[in-house]
Amino acid sequence: MQDRVLAVAMNGVTGRMGYRQHLTRSVLAIRKAGGVELPDGSRVVPEPVLVGRSADKLRRIAEEHGIERWSTDLDTVLSDPGIEAYFDAQITSAREEALRSAIAAGKHIYTEKPTASTLGAALELAKLARDAGVCNGVVQDKLFLPGLIKLRRLLESGFFGRVLSIRGEFGYWVFEGGWQEPQRPSWNYRAEDGGGIVLDMFPHWHYIMEQLFAPVRAVTATTATHIARRWDEDGSPYAATAEDAAYAVFELEGGITAQINSSWCVRVDRDELVEFQVDGTEGSAVAGLRNCRIQHRVATPRAFWDPDAPADRGGYRDQWEHVPDNADFDNGFRAQWEQFISHVCAGTRFPYDLLSGARGLQLAEAGLRSASSGHRVELEEVDLP
After folding, report:
1. Local structure of 359: helix, strand or coil
2. Which of 37-46, 201-210, 302-311, 338-347 has the lowest average pLDDT?
3. Sheet of 274-280: strands edge to edge?
4. Mean pLDDT across the stretch 356-366?
5. pLDDT: which is higher, 309 or 13
6. If one looks up domain 143-327 in CATH, what number appears?
7. Which fold has domain 4-141+332-352?
8. C-alpha span between 161 and 283 (Å, rounded)
9. Which end of the chain has less neighbouring CB within 10 Å, N or C?
10. For 235-263, how does the pLDDT look when each residue is reduced to its tens digit (9 = 90+)?
């Protein structure tokens, strides 16, 4: 069978995430490997068409990676009938308008999150895509990471019994910029530009909870701007107007309680940058980006509170077992790209759509309302009319 080429307009690939994870480690890696194999045995090779604001950056990336087409004119790219799909990794504040234009042009949509600035706008995008009959998807990369794949395996096997609670810790120290270069762009700390850790991370926590455990029904959150003054890419100081830490309790359907701390002002004392401990009646697990450790009820040691006795060398962590890989894991972003390409070209199942992305934004909005009011906020079920 002859390979099919799928031309994908990729907007925002001059940024860190768009370039490293989506362009080089996903689309170009898939292209180099000969494309995505479909259920009928045929293959689809993605061909990126770069879009952005900086001609110099686009030209440099295109020349380095052998990409034939690039443009600073999004409208011209979207008017090309040979381009079937549109991907967006721009700054959040620019995404909604571009997605609307792409849907109106009849392009299949794959996008980073949040998909829009408000829940109402995100739901409207989902409705527009549905009415236009285009495939649509939202990046939910952490579901495709080895640690969470192992966690899903445990859940599907019934390892936990009844899940009781989830405790998550995420974050690291992001340098302020005054004496060491920051690891994140300055817009992340400006609310007026769509910044803030709630908008950045709560959509991630939402799809993890929704896809692995149960829908979220309520949230109680506290936020903080711990570092009030940072330095931008030009070395100029600016006032941080967005929160850089959030501490939240999520109530899930079925009585599961999730507590997740998110912070760009914490020094890491974990095995991985994010870890989730899941406790159930039959067993517990701690899952990170790559690894997953377990302790079943029959292997749970009896713990004692004794402040006068020294802890054993290795401590409690040595009492857990590691879940084996039992498989080769691809880059998580690439794995979801392959599923989306198969969805577009073969109609295979893809549950990570714009409506799911809208529910993630709903949780972020509810978290911000809770932090502002000091009250618990319930989430109403959202769907398309």
Report:
1. helix
2. 302-311
3. 321-322, 292-296, 283-287, 274-280, 163-171, 257-263, 245-252, 216-224, 377-378
4. 97
5. 13
6. 3.30.360.10
7. Rossmann fold (3.40.50)
8. 7
9. C
10. 999 999 999 999 999 999 999 999 999 99
pLDDT classification of 77: cutoffs 50, 70, 90: very high
Long-range contacts of 342-351 (CB under 8 A, 24+ apart): 342/36, 342/38, 342/39, 342/44, 343/135, 343/137, 344/6, 344/84, 344/85, 344/108, 344/135, 345/4, 345/6, 345/36, 345/38, 345/44, 346/38, 346/39, 346/40, 348/39, 350/135, 350/137, 351/211
Give residue 313's pLDDT band: very low, low, confident or very high (50, 70, 90): low
Concatenated DSSP letters of 78-140: HT-TT--EEEE-S-HHHHHHHHHHHHHTT-EEEE-S--SSSHHHHHHHHHHHHHHT--EEE--
Whole-number pLDDT of residue 303: 84
Buried b (16+ CB within 10 A) or exposed e, 91-129: ebebbbebbbbbbebebbbbbbbbbbbebebbbbbbbbb
Digit-coded pLDDT (tens) for 140-191: 999 999 999 999 999 999 999 999 999 999 999 999 999 999 999 999 999 9
Tokens representing 361 are 């934004």
The structural domains of the chain, with segments of one domain joined by +, span 4-141+332-352, 143-327
The gap from C-alpha 153 to its chain's centroid, in whole angstroms, comes to 20
